[in-house]
Amino acid sequence: MAPRWIGMLWLLLGMSVSAVERDIRYIERPGFAAGLTSLDLHPPGVRGKQASPVIVLLHGGGWSAGDKARDGFLQPKTSWLNRHGCLVASVNYRLSPAVRHPAHIDDVAAALAWLQKNVGRYGGDPQRIYLLGHSAGAHLAALAAVDQERLRHAGADPGAIRGVILLDGAGYDIPRQYAIATRSVLTGRMYRNAFTEDPVVQRDASPACKTIRNPPPFLILHVAGRADARQQAELLAEALRKGGGEAAVKAIAGKNHMEINRDCGKAGDPVTRAVAAFLGLNETAW
After folding, report:
1. Which domains are present in the chain?
2. Which residue, 88, 45, 46, is CA-closest to 264?
3. What is the pTM of this model?
4. Which listed site, 56, 146, 239, 285, has its alpha carbon 20 to 30 Å from 204?
5. 3-state secondary structure of 282
């Protein structure tokens, strides 16, 4: 929370200090807790003359855990993006094993439809939406951006998504990754709980297996030395380029799966620099 004197200074300068809007229900899912289909809005502290770009955060957790407000996921990237004038929307979605595909992505699509219809009231630009996901959230961000039919069915405009940032996902081609995951009891169960054992369901959940047409630009970051993440990143990038899109793949050295997410937003960090360049932000503007 900003010190009181900063808020007073903003008010004296005639600027508005925006409050976080928590637990906004973006869709009703009978039988499920309201928090699973809710989002939080983190506006920039000072609202500019133009509507703010909207960064949609999708948490990881193997499609079975995680939360939009968990600090290791939310910060420091949210505060950093807010300082650059971005409105951050952190989104929850239903979790496995209570649900399986396509429930997770249906929720993400519903959240995007809600944002496009309502975020203007909070100072966000509904036609400048960027997706940023980590791990399972990276899979969902990629799938939301390329599954245009699903987005339209939910009432969202695929053209409003201007870019996608993926942090160390490894589930862009689920059938291929499932063959690796089943070598471990735990990871095999995780994939079965989320996507079943049915290859048809698994392919439908795979952004790299979709018929992709003119996708938004992608920045695909993965941990250096993690072979399956690198292979999955390259498969997705190839599919995106074949569909007429731009995709940059970058290995991040010296970090593990959690650090690549947790360090995003730290000054001088390689993940921060890569994301800043992709979004066109001045990283020195702290």
Report:
1. 19-279 (3.40.50.1820)
2. 88
3. 0.93
4. 56
5. coil
